[in-house]
């Protein structure tokens, strides 16, 4: 599940669990909780808001809840449940790509598969230097990738070699390497507290610009036409300046 806090103009969405070792798996209940929190943020947002998404413990998110899928009791049932998670996670990605404010993912630990995708859906990604990895496990566990996952990687990671290593080699990318690959903004943080603090500072800096949220969202959508097209996000012309 998740909780929502607010510090000044920065909203903080926190993936929560029953213990510090919780993997924050993206099952239906968690996905619904995230969507509800994002709706609350939009309802309360003003010009000059920002969003930081983080979690507690060892994991940022370890991806879809495969145990829930397998609990269906049959191969067909498991595939149906996996497809259901893929389908209901798609609106989360669409919401973040059209969100009316800057967004930051503060990765305190491992971000794997859908968790990696959740992080990439933000404008900025900050990681710990000492712990945590980015990892796309699909080739290791024998699953193909949804089309919108692939489009996100093409949109957000410019290097074809980096995409190959992440998707076809299942490379486990640590913080400093992720910075060199252009995936994350920074990894100069040695604790969960430091990466969250750095993300909050960035959020406050971006919020202080007081950009119009709709203008910000439309410009973001125009940057990533492939993934936005797959998600049905249409770029709209919008003028916030009353003198034009």
Order of helices and strands: EEHEEHHEEHEEHHHHHHH
Please tally the β strands and state the result. 8
Q: Which second-level CATH architecture applies?
A: Alpha-Beta Complex
* Discrete helix count: 11
Name the shape in a single word.
globular
The largest sheet has its strands arranged as 1-2-3-5-7
Biggest sheet descriptor: 5 strands, mixed
Give the low-confidence spans: none
| CATH level 4 superfamily | 2-enoyl-CoA Hydratase, Chain A, domain 1
Summed up, the domain count is 1
Class of secondary structure makeup:
alpha/beta
Mean pLDDT: 93
Q: What is the CATH class?
A: Alpha Beta
In whole angstroms, how far apart are the ends?
44 Å
Strand fraction band?
A: 5-15%
Helix content: 40-55%
CATH topology name: 2-enoyl-CoA Hydratase, Chain A, domain 1
Calculate Rg over CA atoms.
17 Å
What report would you give on this structure?
This protein has 244 residues and is α/β, with parallel strands linked by helices. It has a single domain (2-230), classed as 2-enoyl-CoA Hydratase, Chain A, domain 1. 46% of the residues lie in helices and 14% in strands. It has helices at residues 28-44, 66-70, 75-97, 114-120, 138-141, 147-156, 160-167, 175-180, 192-207, 213-223, 225-230, and strands at residues 2-7, 10-15, 50-55, 59-61, 103-107, 110-112, 124-127, 134-135. The strands form 2 sheets. The protein has a 5-stranded mixed β-sheet with strand order 1-2-3-5-7, sandwiched between helices. A 3-stranded parallel β-sheet has the order 4-6-8. Helix 1 links the parallel strand 2 and strand 3. Helix 1 (28-44) packs parallel to helix 3 (75-97). The longest helix is centred in the middle third of the chain and has 23 residues, at 75-97. It is globular and about 60 Å long. The chain starts with a strand and ends in a 14-residue tail after the last helix. It holds the Pfam family ECH_1.
